[in-house]
Every structure is written in C-alpha cells, then in structure tokens.
C-alpha cells in the first residue's frame, strides 16, 4: 500500500485496494439497479397525469425504461472494453499488419479494428501511419470500417436492447462488409487517389516506444478514464436517440411503419441508407431508435441497413478523412460500403 | 532546459496533457519549452498514431491517452 507523506491540499492517489473494492461495489450496485428497471419506469410513468396505455404514457414508459438501461449498459461495456483495449495499441496493430500482405490481411485487419482503441481525432495519423508502413490501402480500409461498425459498444447495446439473435447477425454481416469492402477497394488500385503528400510519405519512421510497465490497476484506471470520457461525451446523443425512439414507440402507427419500412416496400432499403449517412450520432444513440423501429414492425433488413449506414458512414468522419483522401476516393469508399450495406438489407428482407 | 513536443490535433486530451507537463515541470523545477504539433503530417512523421503523443528532447516517450503523472516526472527528470 502507498505510504507517501501527506502533501497538503494535493490529491492523494487511491490505493490499489480502494480501486478493486470500488469497482466491485459499483458492479454489484449496477447489477441490482439493472434488475429494477421495469418497476422504476412504471413508477416514473405513474407520476405523470396521463393514461398508462395512451400514446404519451407509452412514450414516457419507453423513455424512463431505456435511459437508465442504456446508461448502465454503456458504462459497463465501455469500462470492460477500456480494460481489454489496454493490451492493444495502434502501434502494435500496425506491426502485426505490416507483415501481412496476402489475403489474410483483410479479415485480420477487420478483427484488429474491433479491438484497437482509436478515437476519431486519431484516425488521420493512424491512417497515414498504416499506409506509410506499407500496409495496403484496402487492408487499412477494412480496419477503419470494422472499428466503428462492429465495435463492442454497439454489439453490447444491441444485445441488451434487441436480443442476441440480431446482435449476432449484425456482428457477422458487419465483419463481412468490412472484410469484403476492404478487399474490393484494395483490388481497385486506388493509391493514386490519396492526397499527394500522403503518397509521397512512404517511409515514416516507426515510433518505437518502450514497452510501458503497467499494472492491472493501471488497466482498471484506463477503463474508468474511458467511461468518464466516452459516457461524458455521448450521453446527450443517448438522450436524443431514446427520445426519438420513445416518440416512434408511442406515436407512430404500426400500419404507417409497415408501409414505409416494411419488407414490401422495395425502395425502403436505399432510403434507409440515404437517411442514415448524414445522421451524426453513434451506436449508443442509434440503437434505441432501432429498438423502437423493430418493435413497430419495421423489416429487419431495412433497419440493419439504417443502423449500419449511420454507424459506418458518418459524414463528419469523412470530412476528417478529407485531409488524407481525395474527394474521389471518399466517394468510391462510400459507394463500395453502401453497396455492401444495401446487399445486406435486401438479403434479410428477402430471407425473412 | 528540456524541449517537450506534444503531438495531437488539439483535442481536450491534448490540452490536458499540456497542463500535466507544465505541472510536472513546475514540481521538479525543470524548465521546459513546450511545442504543440497539430498537423497530421508532422504527427505521423514522428511515428505517432494514437494521440496525444509526447516527445522529450526529440525522443518519443508516449503515445495514446493521458500520460501517467509519475512517469511524466521520470521522463522530464531524466
């Protein structure tokens, strides 16, 4: 245990034992609270002067159930992911991928994309770091598509809100789209559409960082830091997403939903992609909307297409990539990924 | 006098890292010249792929996430 002298007003670092006990205590509290979601939301709804089964009553109940549920799930998943990801780094991933030029590079890149931590503010240096180390452009794309699309946060929320079947389908197809799109983009020989200076930068020095000695408590701290940062940033999108989901759940008539998002309307899949791409949110914001859409009878393929295009093809992300990619390359990238998403959407509407 | 470069596009964590460097330097009584490197090309040229990255006297010591305060003092004190 730490035995540093007191430093007056300076914050004392918490001891290792405090960390273990604190995390265990919070996990138990979260677990208990998770069991009380239904009584809690019913109690909240009863505080409003509305009929329980009216449109407004249904919307309030959905909101009061989903907000604590999503926030609890999100906190837990982000924490666990943060701890797991402390074993991975973009630098390590790069050295793993740099040796793999053959066909295995694509699925491997997609797999590593899921586990390697990177935020959107790092995506440009990461992109350049990969390409300049000789990792093929297509493999780099597989990595960049898989990261946000099949990230553990989205999968965990999907599992918690709409069940394991859809979460599994999403995992398999998200992974397939990332692998196949990267492969197709790689075959197109698009290196000439990189911004000039990126193409010229072929041999950037590899940052050989000394392996830092970190303890398990350091990894727990990383997880806690991730929770503070990610939940602190996305909670507003969570509220907006659940608000939209609640409105759909309470007010949109099923007949109307079947007409615009049902399996019969052939144009609904491309429409879902067109609506999804410019939407700026993230997995945590869009999954409550997906939950409400599916509950109202929207077709699975159409809903998956909507969710995938929101998560994998957000416009702000493309604007960040504009620093390294020409507009033409961005357009090709969007087109290839969209085709994959459309195919997935039609396939499921056709099968189910 | 130590030269500290902070690599990052100017996100919140980069600002927090800069403050941590200043605090650690003040605590150790080391004079530091902090340079912020924000453009993508220079960040990648330094071999940094996850920001913020830190280099002390030209040597990259850290990349990705906030540095640990105790280690920061080691790097600045060395």
Automatic annotation (TrEMBL), chain A:
Membrane topology label: Multi-pass membrane protein
Assigned GO CC terms: plasma membrane
Protein keywords: Cell membrane, Membrane, Transmembrane, Transmembrane helix
One Pfam family linked to the record: ArsP_1
Subcellular location: Cell membrane
Source species, domain of life: Bacteria
Entry annotated with the keyword Coiled coil: no
Family membership: Belongs to the UPF0718 family.
Name recorded for this polypeptide: Permease
Source species taxonomy: Bacteria, Pseudomonadati, Pseudomonadota, Alphaproteobacteria, Rhodobacterales
Automatic annotation (TrEMBL), chain B:
Annotated S-S bridges: 11-14
Disulfide bond listed as a keyword: yes
Active-site residues, as the UniProt record annotates them: 11, 14
Keyword line: Disulfide bond, Redox-active center
One Pfam family from the record: Thioredoxin_3
Residues in Thioredoxin-like fold domain copies: 3-76
Highest taxon in the source lineage: Bacteria
Protein name: Small redox-active disulfide protein 2
């Amino acid at each position: 245990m730490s035995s540093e002298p007191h430093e007056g007003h300076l914050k004392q670092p918490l001891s290792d034992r405090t960390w273990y006990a604190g995390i265990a205590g919070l996990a138990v509290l979260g677990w208990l609270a998770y069991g009380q979601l239904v009584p809690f939301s019913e109690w909240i709804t009863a505080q409003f002067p509305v009929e329980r089964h009216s449109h407004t009553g249904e919307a309030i109940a959905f909101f009061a159930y989903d907000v604590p549920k999503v926030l609890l799930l999100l906190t837990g998943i982000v924490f666990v992911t943060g701890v797991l990801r402390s074993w991975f780094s973009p630098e390590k991933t790069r050295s793993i991928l740099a040796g793999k030029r053959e066909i295995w590079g694509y699925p491997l890149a997609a797999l590593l994309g899921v586990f390697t931590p990177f935020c959107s503010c790092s995506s440009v240096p990461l992109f350049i770091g990969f390409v300049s180390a000789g990792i093929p452009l297509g493999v780099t794309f597989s990595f960049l598509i898989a990261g946000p699309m099949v990230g553990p946060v989205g999968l965990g929320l999907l599992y918690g809100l709409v069940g394991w079947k859809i979460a599994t389908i999403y995992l398999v197809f998200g992974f397939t789209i990332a692998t196949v799109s990267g492969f197709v983009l790689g075959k197109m020989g698009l290196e000439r559409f990189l911004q000039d200076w990126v193409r010229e930068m072929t041999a950037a020095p590899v940052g050989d960082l000394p392996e830092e000695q970190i303890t398990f408590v350091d990894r727990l701290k990383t997880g806690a830091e991730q929770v503070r940062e990610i939940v602190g940033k996305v909670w507003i999108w969570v509220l907006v997403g659940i608000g939209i989901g609640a409105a759909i759940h309470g007010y949109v008539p099923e007949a109307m939903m079947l007409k615009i998002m049902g399996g019969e309307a052939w144009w609904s899949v491309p429409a879902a992609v067109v609506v999804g791409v410019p939407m700026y949110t993230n997995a945590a914001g869009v999954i409550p909307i997906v939950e409400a859409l599916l509950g109202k009878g929207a077709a699975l393929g159409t809903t998956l297409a909507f969710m995938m295009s929101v998560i994998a093809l957000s416009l702000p992300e493309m604007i960040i990539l504009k620093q390294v990619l020409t507009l033409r390359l961005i357009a090709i990238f969007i087109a290839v990924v969209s085709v994959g998403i459309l195919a997935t959407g039609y396939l499921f509407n056709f099968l189910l | 006098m130590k030269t500290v470069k902070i690599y990052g596009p100017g996100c919140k964590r980069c600002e927090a890292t800069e403050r941590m460097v200043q605090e650690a330097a003040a605590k150790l009584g080391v004079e530091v010249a902090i340079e912020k490197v924000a453009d993508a090309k220079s960040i990648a040229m330094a071999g940094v792929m996850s920001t913020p990255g830190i280099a002390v006297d030209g040597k990259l010591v850290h990349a990705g996430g906030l540095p640990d305060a105790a280690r920061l003092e080691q790097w600045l004190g060395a």
